[in-house]
Design a protein that fits this description.
The structure is a homodimer. By secondary structure, chain A is an alpha/beta fold. Chain A has 3 domains: 5-48, lambda repressor-like DNA-binding domains (434 Repressor (Amino-terminal Domain)), CATH 1.10.260.40; 61-158 and 294-325, Response regulator (Rossmann fold); 160-291, Rossmann fold (3-Layer(aba) Sandwich), CATH 3.40.50. Helix content of chain A is 45%, strand content 12%. Chain A has 13 helices and 11 strands. Chain A has helices at residues 5-12, 16-23, 31-44, 50-57, 73-88, 102-110, 129-135, 160-173, 191-207, 223-236, 248-260, 278-282, 294-310, and strands spanning 62-67, 92-97, 119-122, 141-144, 155-156, 179-182, 216-217, 242-245, 270-272, 289-291, 326-328. In chain A, the strands form 3 sheets. Chain A has a 5-stranded parallel sheet, with helices on both faces. In chain A, strand 8 (242-245), helix 11 and strand 9 form a beta-alpha-beta unit. In chain A, helix 5 (73-88) packs across helix 13 and helix 10 (223-236) crosses helix 11 (248-260). At the A-B interface, helix 4, helix 5, strand 2, helix 10 and helix 11 of A face helix 4, helix 5, strand 2, helix 10 and helix 11 of B. Chain A binds a DNA duplex through residues 2, 4-6, 14-18, 20-21, 23-24, 26-30, 33, 48-58.
Amino acid sequence: MAVTMNDVARAAGVSLKTVSNVINDYEFIRPATKQRVLDAIEELGYETNLTARSLRSGKTSMLGLVLADLSVPYYAELASDIMKAAWARGYRVLVEQSGNEADHEKSALQGQFRSLTDGLLFIPLSLDAEQIIRAAGKKPLVLLGEFVQDPRLDMVLIQNHEASAAVTAHLLAGGRRRIAVLGAHDGDTTGSNGLRLNGYKAALAAAGVEYDPALVIGCEWRRDGGADAIARLLDSGVAFDAVFGLNDVVALGALHELLVRGKRVPDEIAVAGFDDIDEARFASPSLTTVEPGRAEIAERAVELLINRIEGKGSADKVEQPEAEFSLRVRQSAP
Amino acid sequence: MAVTMNDVARAAGVSLKTVSNVINDYEFIRPATKQRVLDAIEELGYETNLTARSLRSGKTSMLGLVLADLSVPYYAELASDIMKAAWARGYRVLVEQSGNEADHEKSALQGQFRSLTDGLLFIPLSLDAEQIIRAAGKKPLVLLGEFVQDPRLDMVLIQNHEASAAVTAHLLAGGRRRIAVLGAHDGDTTGSNGLRLNGYKAALAAAGVEYDPALVIGCEWRRDGGADAIARLLDSGVAFDAVFGLNDVVALGALHELLVRGKRVPDEIAVAGFDDIDEARFASPSLTTVEPGRAEIAERAVELLINRIEGKGSADKVEQPEAEFSLRVRQSAP
DNA sequence: CACGTGATCTGCAACGATGTATCCCAGCAG
DNA sequence: CTGCTGGGATACATCGTTGCAGATCACGTG
């Protein structure tokens, strides 16, 4: 059916291997021969069969990307950046949605999925470092999203603590003293939630403001999670003058609910988030948030993973580069 | 390196082909043999090499999905649904971002990308039907997103005209008479923009309201496009009491700009969109919009494509199922 | 003029699985 | 006892490409 190298070889009057050499830019080919082969390729409409190439070469030139769900804006935007970075380096990205389920994450790490990819970018949500190390095979693996932190694993880090502290400090500088936190529980110390909560605490301490666990409300990192959380807080009667959603959709969900309930933002209550998704800029009022360095994260992660795949760089040293964040001050918390 | 069927065969004391038979659930295998093979697989940690299987069988069990950019919420949500639908049927999805460039779309249609997939889901934006037919190979192809319409191509349709008319009718029913349209030009008749514009016109006509081209503002289908467009309209001094953004992000961008400029929504100006992205529900005010049947679109498209791939269904008849839409009335246009 | 050298091209095996044809054997009818 | 049947397992070729090891040939050198 499909045109193969053999057909091209016959048409060009050369050996199959010469066609292969032309395609792979082998150095020593007479220009005339090369041209004949290229003409034959053109004429027959030959396309290299990537499956066969993969089988023979042992490389698929595909990176796996495991994340919870593309419908989450931050992941979608990150995935888009990752795909572009990979594309620029000659790799494609195969996305696997884990739905935030441990089984699914595990099977993505070990399963057949791996045989389709040369390496994996993984945003773990349910598995811890130990489970990841146990489940992961020998193929290169780079973690993103820092829910997991471990000195044995390559990963690109977000400055959760510092960025969170910066947001909090900004709210404090605006005169807020009772800052509610949505998306973490009082005891959390690990994962994005824990790290961001700790950054919040550190900023409070630095400003001499007392930490009140009653202001810390756990919720799913979704819009409705944020809306529910703020509703519970309002209903509880606890006083607060600012809200820090540990990611943007939580903050936006809370913002929505606050406005529904007739609160004035930012006059009565300031709102801030974390991620700087595109939507944050166009919310009403626009959302103050922190940009975690998404483009840099994508770039570094892809670069690191491909270096591992291609054996460049120091093979044995675990790498954990950190992305630069920046505060985005907007209307919701000027 | 990796464990192959051969290793398993040796360990289980059977032939390579028997291992293959066990894995592919061949009927006539003695339970004892099967068990021995399964044990060996377990013990050695064997994983089938999907690349090799693909080469031999000629199927990759992957669907290609070509869209402009995952950072666009509607595409991200659609992609998520498509991936789930495909997964449920034993297929994976390989996403290719065209960036809305014709060259890129074309290369996705013909290029090596195709050899990795059994069929393609394509959301065309730059290519027209003729170009698509010319560029596409013989592999199954299903179009989505109806910028292109052609009786020769399989596609899943959105009821652009009807849904758009429904939104417009809703605004009219709310007493609005000067409804601005963002995201189309006066002359447009094809593509989502043209079809939706026509739906708008039809609803006006049905209500006996005159069509005013000055209310139709072209813009990119992005947040900033919507914001710019409404800014231009406001600056032009043309009077209007409602805005229909031809998709949600345009509407949300416009909504943002209206609020920035101190307009009251919906009291002074009502706003409606098209797509019902998750964000619409949590905007402030929440956005009235139309749900085009996204889940159904994903489901039908995947089903249709896989039927084509597997040769089920009527081979020769072009299929163009239409998804059911539904109006979502919210605060921005009650 | 024989010979080394490097440019140019070729043949064969192999990647890891599956399709096809075949073989072996137990059970059973004639 | 022979021949047939069909379950259960196997051997071999094959998918389309690339790695490796050569083969060939022109050319300059001593």
